[in-house]
Write a structure and sequence with these properties.
272 residues; 0% strand; globular; 11 helices; mainly alpha
Length: 272
């Protein structure tokens, strides 16, 4: 469809306003990370790189960073296993309640984080008697990371024909062999993209973490939130926030490129 010049200009203007609405606050944080002053005055009186060195030497920020990495990696592994199994059950088998199960798997991503956090905290401390710590953070993050992996995997499986899997079974392959040699290679890209998105989601999470972290256990978002109100720490908080932005962009961008390239390859293959 060909648009008039006026319509094109309006669409470009709307796109520019949308991007500015989203990214101008992030750009301000980036500028403040180089602020020579400890105060938040605009425009900054000067620029410096000193705060980046201070952030790297900050023990609290460094420990929180590694805690976030460990929690995100472990939650992603759990999400990969459970999300893949759930997607195979829903996409490859017919049984009573299949759609209900699919709905229940994706429901946690829509629930308010504070509700999930309170429910997990109560379950761990009052019902199971588990002390809050890194383990409970990982379980809490896995509850919503599963959704990302499941959505990616089930979408890929629904686009894949079952003919190759049926042919593998007809040739005498066991279900595990068929999964390992036929199904898994075809859904590998979706799983990698889902894992990247799950890790990014876990790395940024703060609400559920607040209710599942034990005393003295901090992820990077919680460290930022705790130190934001401390004037002496504010420049370091700005630097750490920029690092979080960069770390969050990488998995999302890689997942985007991976799924886009695979979709393009699939479309090109389908053309006779």
């Amino acid at each position: 469809m060909r648009l008039s010049r006026r319509s094109e200009l309006l669409l470009r203007l709307a796109s520019g306003v949308t991007l500015a609405f989203i990214y101008v606050p992030l750009a301000i944080i980036v500028v403040y990370a180089f602020n020579a002053s400890k105060g938040l005055s605009w425009p900054p009186p000067g620029l410096t790189l000193d705060w980046f060195g201070e952030a790297l030497r900050n023990d609290g920020a460094r420990d929180a960073f590694f805690t976030s990495i460990k929690a995100g990696a472990a939650a992603t592994v759990i999400a990969l296993v459970l999300g893949t199994l759930a997607s195979l059950a829903v996409a490859r088998h017919r049984f009573f309640g299949r759609e209900t199960i699919s709905f229940l798997v994706i429901l946690p991503i829509a629930l308010p984080g504070i509700v999930t956090g309170v429910a997990l905290n109560t379950s761990f401390t009052q019902i199971l008697g588990v002390d809050l710590g890194l383990f409970t953070i990982i379980v809490g993050h896995a509850t919503f990371c599963i959704v990302v992996v499941y959505n990616n995997a089930v979408a890929r499986l629904r686009r894949l024909s079952t003919s190759f899997e049926e042919a593998s079974a007809d040739l005498g392959a066991t279900p595990w062999m068929t999964f390992r040699r036929v199904t898994l290679p075809n859904m590998r890209g979706a799983l990698v993209a889902g894992a990247l998105l799950a890790f990014g989601l876990s790395f940024d999470e703060i609400i559920v973490t607040t209710f599942t972290a034990g005393a003295g256990e901090q992820t990077l978002p919680i460290w930022i939130f705790t130190n934001f109100s401390r004037p002496n720490q504010l420049p370091i908080v700005n630097v750490v926030a920029v690092l979080v932005i960069l770390i969050s962009i990488l998995p999302v961008y890689m997942a985007y490129r991976l799924t886009r390239d695979e979709d393009a390859t699939g479309a090109a293959t389908a053309v006779p």
